[in-house]
Amino acid sequence: MFVTYVRIHHGLQQKGDTMHSGPTHATAGLHPLDFIGDHLAIDFINTLRTPDGVLYDVFETDKDVRDWLFHAGVSTPKEPVRWPQGALLWKARQLREIALKAVEAMKAGKRPSLDTLNLFLEHAASHPQLVMRPGSKIEIKRVRGSRTLEEFLSPIAEAVAELLADGDFDLIRHCEGEECSLWFYDRTKAHRRRWCSPAACGNRAKVAAFRARVKANAN
Q1: How far is CA 144 from the centre of its chain?
Q2: DSSP 129
Q3: In terms of C-beta density within 10 A (0-12 exposed, 13-18 middle, 19 or more buried), how is residue 111 classed?
């Protein structure tokens, strides 16, 4: 079951007749919080988030999903596959929900359900292909098909599987921001990362701490 989604256009949230300042929708370009997870699967999960306590979904159309995959560096077929309108969006949201529940289970020390993710992985057929790069360098590129939606999204499903199997869940953390829903993989040297972004929740925490000190000194 999915949550209710909010469409955001050009910095304004529209839900009924209520207007609220918010982040720019994906169709207007990348947002600073789009790729802060330090892992493809986590960045995918983070496409549904709550900046400033407002629910925001990067995925509102099939094109949004394709655009995000492009910016994430995920290779997709050059010729667009023609599925029914909204089918890719629905399938991407389904995979995201599967990934989120699995990560939450792992963080809680529970066993995640693997059946639904394995259904995606069953369609992860691919083959290697040699390509010539500038300077006569030969590289191996993995080529994927796109006959089904699951196959098209298989790079994400594989990234989620890799995270569950090999990820260090002591370093996979939830942002400490009070209303933030973002996750990240702490790859810092000291492993002391607390915030999704220093400019977002990190800055808000500093401002709140400063105001608390000022208030305490005033009393």
Answers
A1: 21
A2: E
A3: exposed
137: helix, coil or strand? strand
Q: Decide: 172 and 105 in contact? Cβ < 8 Å.
A: no
What one-character DSSP code corresponds to residue 148?
S
Do 23 and 11 meet the contact criterion of CB atoms below 8 Å apart? yes
Per-residue pLDDT of the chain (219 residues; tens, 9 = 90+): 333 333 333 232 333 322 222 333 444 567 878 899 999 999 999 999 987 778 899 999 999 999 999 999 998 876 667 899 999 999 999 999 999 999 999 999 999 999 999 999 998 888 888 999 888 899 998 888 778 899 899 999 999 999 999 999 999 999 988 888 899 999 999 999 988 876 668 566 555 543 555 555 666
User: Strand order in 12-15's β-sheet?
Assistant: 7-9, 12-15, 18-21
* Gap between the Cα atoms of 142 and 131, Å rounded: 10
Predicted TM-score of the model (pTM): 0.77
CA nearest 200: which of 170, 180, 174?
180
Per the structure block, which two tokens stand in for 172?
């996979």
Q: Which long-range contacts (CB under 8 A, 24 or more apart) does 204-209 make?
A: 204/177, 205/176, 205/177
Q: Token pair 């089904």 is at which residue?
A: 148
CATH architecture of 7-218: Orthogonal Bundle (1.10)
φ, ψ for residue 175, nearest 5 deg: -55, 140
